[in-house]
Amino acid sequence: MTIKQSNLCLSADVSTTNQLLHLADAIGPSIVVLKTHYDLITNWDYSPTSGTGAKLARLARRHGFLIFEDRKFGDIGNTVQLQYVEGTARIIEWSHITNVNMIPGKAVVDSLADAAVRWRERKRYEVKTDISVGTPRAESVDSDTEDGIETTRKTSIPEPQGLDAYRAASVGRKASIVSITTVSQHFEPANSPRSYDEFSEDVFPGIEEAPLERGLLILAQMSSKGNFMTGEYTRACVESAREHRGYVMGFISQETLNEEPEDQFLSMTPGCQLPPEDSDSDAEIEGDGKGQQYNTPKKLVGLMGNDIIIVGRGIIKAANPRAEAERYRRSAWAAYEERIAA
């Protein structure tokens, strides 16, 4: 947020892969989060290496934003675990953030947190194997002559701590006088940019690649008129978040829910809209006629204490979506800086 001077999330509610990828690329420079609904996309490509999720991940690295799959998990623990890590979409593989509706109870958050930990442990490292063939030079190899056969020894790269399953050892490699084959293995984090060699240089400057740790948002409050998320429900959401501080990053809410000194949860807020450029910035904004109520960035961020605004149709349906995204970014960031400076 600080590097990009942005607290804007784009809600990319579109129906085709081309639309989604085009928006991610065009609006990416203005946002810190891209919110998706993969099940709205009619031609979603499920390939783990070249599909829609993989392409989104590359755009996220290029433009420096996180991907938030707005799944709103809301079932028994075992079911949501499977929906999160299995199935055709394998949401956990490409989405940095997801969210949960806590109507089924705290067990749904417990189950997702457990699934994320187990997935991260499985994905922690990958083995890279390099094979090269060339002519040996006397100064580059240590040779022993044994029974008339020249033997070249190569020591492998030391393994990272904790990888007891892999043991690096010195191995003998035989070579003729005119050629040598070298096989080496090394270990690196599975989320290293080198895992995507063709995109390794195409990363937003100053922003590290997202870690393997996944984040969860709890749906604590909604902006739709007449919703049933009572104060008791919201308090239960906060309690569950405090029990899983290492996994729950914040809430979808209408106001900040940080009440205790150690609370450092982000509040991401939908229902944000700017009035037209030529009108009063504090003008009253009408809803969409389908239950959605709107507020300005100044009110949501400056007055209500939220951190990130979520904007969809206000940007997507604009005559110039890229310019409109910048207008939202400037307005929301100004409200944020004014609030934290107070």
Topology, pairings included?
Elements: E1 8-11, H1 17-27, E2 33-36, H2 52-63, E3 66-73, H3 77-85, H4 91-94, E4 97-100, H5 107-123, E5 125-134, E6 143-146, E7 149-154, E8 171-174, E9 180-189, E10 215-219, H6 231-243, E11 248-252, E12 266-269, H7 297-303, E13 308-311, H8 313-316, H9 321-341
Parallel strand pairs: 1-2, 1-13, 2-3, 3-4, 4-10, 10-11, 11-12, 12-13
Antiparallel strand pairs: 5-9, 6-7, 7-8
Could you walk me through the main structural features you see in this protein, from its secondary elements to its overall organization?
This protein is an alpha/beta fold. It is built from nine helices and 13 strands. An eight-stranded parallel barrel has the order 1-2-3-4-10-11-12-13, surrounded by seven helices. A three-stranded antiparallel beta sheet has the order 6-7-8, with no helix packed on it. A two-stranded antiparallel ribbon has the order 5-9. Strand 12 (266-269), helix 7 and strand 13 form a beta-alpha-beta unit. The longest helix is centred in the last third of the chain and has 21 residues, at 321-341. Mean pLDDT is 82; it is low at 140-178 and 190-199.
